[in-house]
Design a protein that fits this description.
With about 140 residues, this protein is of the alpha/beta class. The chain has a single domain, classed as Metal-dependent hydrolases (TIM Barrel, Alpha-Beta Barrel). The chain has 6 helices and 6 strands, in the order H-E-E-E-H-E-H-E-H-E-H-H. Helix 1 packs parallel to helix 2 (about 45-60) and helix 2 crosses helix 3. The chain is globular.
């Protein structure tokens, strides 16, 4: 049977899901702060849900990874204070130097997953994003 990922709609639901996952043995928590709902649409996680999930995980000493997908998802991840960005954002439209500075100020780890993203010319912006962050010391 296919088990869908939980999709909390309230801070309380997020907290309960994080607690349950940790109780069941999760070593980290991963949030889809930017969920791909169609090829052309990314739905950002509500800030209050992300903040509650991160707080619940941190109270239990767990790291929180985020899958941001685009700038809106990155913004949610930054406001919620996730620990690690599990991927570079795929849709870099609207990404600014200020976003990268904020990532660096928060000492945000970035796992670029370059192999997953491929090496075609259409991915140049993603590679540039990663290079610019590395140049800032990230």
């Amino acid at each position: 049977m296919l088990k869908l990922l939980p999709q909390p709609s309230t801070p309380r639901e997020a907290t309960n899901i994080v607690r349950r996952n940790i109780d069941e043995g999760a070593d980290i928590i991963k949030l889809f702060t930017g969920s791909n709902v169609s090829p052309a649409r990314v739905l950002p996680m509500p800030d209050d849900v992300a903040v509650a999930a991160v707080a619940a995980a941190h109270r239990r000493g767990k790291l929180v990874f985020a899958h941001p997908s685009n700038v809106a998802g990155l913004e949610v991840a930054l406001r919620a204070q996730v620990d690690v960005l599990a991927h570079a954002i795929e849709d870099t439209r609207g990404l600014t130097a200020e976003h990268l500075r904020r990532m660096r100020q928060q000492n945000k780890a970035l796992v670029p997953t370059l192999k997953l993203l491929g090496d075609g010319d259409d991915r140049k912006e993603i590679r540039d994003e990663i290079r610019r962050y590395a140049d800032l010391g990230g």
